């Protein structure tokens, strides 16, 4: 049971953080030569699918994370500092994602769907900023998850 929970947890984290890495370091630069409306259209369709996936990943991470903590340690009191750090960074990522969803993503969709491309482009800036912060947090969390047991006690 624990192995299944941890496997689901790791796969959800890989999908979320890998998607952020792809979006920021591969897709966005690849769209630069395209005309603005075309690039925004690709981003609109890509983010629509990716952000839905992030909802699934975030839910899986929260559920499997808490289940793992309580099944393996009986709660946070017996968990190591590495587990508490992962909890703090993971929940920060979830909060930032929810803020992205209800704020900049909603604005971007409204502007893009309404044909206001300059406003849509402007609404992408905070999405990129939040995605960058979450990428950094996600990579740090991954490092803590793998190595934290050796140096965080």
In summary, what is this structure?
By secondary structure, the protein is mainly alpha-helical. Helices cover 89% and strands 0% of the residues.
Keyword list:
single chain, 153 residues, mainly alpha, 0% strand
Q: Can you put this structure into words, describing what you see?
A:
The model has no long low-confidence stretch (mean pLDDT 96). Helix 1 (2-31) runs antiparallel to helix 4, helix 2 packs antiparallel against helix 3 and helix 3 (81-113) runs antiparallel to helix 4 (117-151). The chain is elongated and about 55 Å long. The chain is built from four helices and no strands. It has one domain (2-151). It starts with a helix and ends with a helix. Helices cover 89% and strands 0% of the residues. With 153 residues, the chain is mostly helical.
